[in-house]
Amino acid sequence: MRAQEITFLKLVQGEKQFQVPLYQRTYSWGGDQLRRLWEDIGELVDQHLAGEPTSPHFLGSVVLAPGQIQAGGVQKWLVVDGQQRLTTLMLAFTALRDHLKETGDARGVDRVHRQILVNEFHEGADHYRLLPTQADRNAYTACVQSRADAGGSDNIGAAYRFFRGALAQRHEAGDEKWAATVETVLKDLLSIVEITAEPGDNVYRIFESINNTGVGLSQSDLLRNYLFMLLPKRGERIYQELWLPMQQSLGPKNLELLVWLDLVVRGHYKTKQSEIYREQQKRLHSLAGDEDALQREIEQLAQRASRFLRIIDPARESSPALRTVLERLTAWGGQTHYPLTLHLLDLLDTGRTTPDDAAQALGYVESYLVRRLICQTPTTNLNRIFMEAPKELETDRSAAEAVRRFLSGRRRRWPSDEELREAVRTKPFYWSGRPPQRSYILRRLEESYRASEPVDFAKASLSVEHVLPQRPAPAWFDLLAEETEPNQTPQELHDLLVHTLGNLTLTGDNAKLSNHPFERKQQILDSSALRMNLEISSAQRWGKAQILERADRLADRAVELWPCPIGGVKPAGEESPGWVELRAALVAMPSGTWTTYGDVAELIGSHPVPVGAYLSANTSVIGAYRVLTVEGRISPQFRWADGSDRPPPQELLTSEGVRFDSLGRAHPPQRLSAAELATLLGRDVAQPAVHDLLPQREDAEAAERFRAQLQENWPDAYSGVVAVLDFWRRQGGHVTYGRYEETSCFPTLDLGASRRPHLMWPVGIYPVSGTVEVVFQYLKTRSPFDDTEQRRELLNRLNKIDGIDLPEAKLELRPSFPVTVFAEHSDEICEVLDWFVGVAALDLARRD
């Protein structure tokens, strides 16, 4: 084998084709990997635009083996290893080409297409420079050919849509040279090691050896070995006295995190955790031969370890004020604030600040995080902001004032009081952040009442409750009908209110509250120990007016709890984050789907009218034509911009696979709801999870409650559902039950009983709303259904049953069908579940 380091352009140029062998898995990169790559590309682009010296970024290796050689054809290369990186970069180029087309750069379009993507003078399969596995091929060629179905629901389509959105976002910021510089970076500043096998080498053996290696050394392991290699005389003593205690107290993961934080706090804020060893080695290289200096370095790291322990275990902090705010940040969760927090503890322990000053500074950090979550401010660059903070803080003022001034910077987006109050009234808070963060905010709001006998939240088992239910009974809609605006339905008003903070509280009685009328909820909430619940129970009714009034009261408390940035007003002329989120949501929509102005309004906390006005004035927004009226029709106000040669929206949607009836209404199952749009954006849309299901496993009381709700609401389907659940148990499964507003039911398999739990469930049954969700969103994280083809097979088998019509565009979501299908087709559903269990069992046997 031979190896050489080359640029991506040199790797792919020429009449050649890279073929991904069938023994390789399908394309599997997701959002995390794509975002990391895009951040690396963005750094190179910014450096290049600023005229800074730019070194190539090492992307990894690609192992190739010569394929069949055909006279007059292209040179074929088998991609033994590196197909994920290679496919990702090709998809980035397809998105770049299409972006250049949108911006009118015809020469750039032609250049990218011919230089990178295709073998211009060849036809058929030879036309493509990259030929993925059979399962990915159609999705990939759709992107290269710019077909209407490009950007589908699989990982290939998701990666293409990711890059389209990332390019559009920077273009909207007014960076005219951005796209051209991205092209330069992708072609010439990404370094790849090309490793080429010789003819006759056992390609599959090479693949196995690369992908079945043992556990490698961590970055901290490499640093430890390097340091103690440089300490031949003192190494054993320093290891016993300093390194080993630090390693034992932190554990492997936290030690690695500390070594990275040590670099960041020193000012190396661009260092990635995968580059810790290289950067530390570079920094320490000059100390080789000076054991005194090396010992001081390890002593400093050990001191930082003791401070880091106070961050992750605040009980170790001696100052009550500082311990309280560290406990709050621990309850908030996440590691984003760690660099700044560690820096503040450095200042404290070296006498450069006081405990109260450090506590106030961290209070500003909490406010910054909480306000951004409530206002649903995009999290782009949030990690980078906190990594830059130790180096950027002003040193001629108190730590608290320096932190507040730093976070108040214009581009750091600390929401004002005005923005916070508006967000509390309008934003779907229930889809913000992670569940523990939502509960934390409600807990802090409850604590602000300063009850004489406060609730012990450490012992209480509380969850978030919707007072106006997510799935309301008809009586709720009758109440909402009294408050609707002209041309607004009670359902639309419900959707705009239901997830806002004014409608949410904490309770330990979620199952009891369910979707009961407000009068029944009043009785239950009136016995609550929480002051916020007593306040709700004192209301005479619960509709729009009461929800907005409570939102305003909670906003007053939020403003007092979490201080505002310096200046405290919304920056003039700054675009609303809602429009940024709208554009991101439309980019995220797979081809073959549509949504409504109301769904988008619900997502961003707006109203259908301004959403419609914005899109009518900005039809060039990617995916604008996919937003239809509530009936599924093209809005009469929708017009392409002057000079556009694009076909009418209905024709374009039809070419993608959206079906329309004779009255021009789009097919309802292909519609994406606000919750589904939120899911595509990576929001944690609260649904039953593993920890919610396990306590209810085969719970007799929950089972009886589920059957009672099903019998009451869907009596014709009752016997069919019960028969299917009995069949599931005979196949070795069990039944678990949710504990939310209706007693949902999940036929569950535990395929990891001998090792660790590996739960899997194909559907969730909701006995009040009468829907059956097919949980592709969860299955895609569980083998073997992490393979798109297996999920597609499940979809196809279900779609053969009358009454089920699941769109392929929702293979990463939770499409549903009516529970009434069980009335006449329970046997057919059992056949599908039998297949599901067989596939899962076969995969388990293969992995064992």
TrEMBL record:
- Domain of life assignment: Bacteria
Q: Which stretches are annotated as coiled coil?
A: 277-304
Q: Does the keyword Repressor apply?
A: no
Which residue numbers delimit the GmrSD restriction endonucleases N-terminal domain?
A: 10-228
Q: What GO terms are given for molecular function? A: catalytic activity
Q: Which GO terms describe its biological process?
A: DNA repair
* InterPro entries reported for this sequence: GmrSD_C (IPR011089), GmrSD_N (IPR004919), MethylDNA_cys_MeTrfase_DNA-bd (IPR014048), MethylDNA_cys_MeTrfase_DNAb (IPR036217), WH-like_DNA-bd_sf (IPR036388)
Task: Recite the UniProt keywords alphabetically.
Answer: Coiled coil, DNA damage
Residue span, GmrSD restriction endonucleases C-terminal domain: 414-556
Pfam families (alphabetical): DNA_binding_1, GmrSD_C, GmrSD_N
| Domain Methylated-DNA-[protein]-cysteine S-methyltransferase DNA binding: from-to ranges | 584-658
Q: Does the keyword DNA damage apply?
A: yes
Q: Which PANTHER family match?
A: DUF262 DOMAIN-CONTAINING PROTEIN, SLL5132 PROTEIN
Q: What is this protein called?
A: DUF262 domain-containing protein
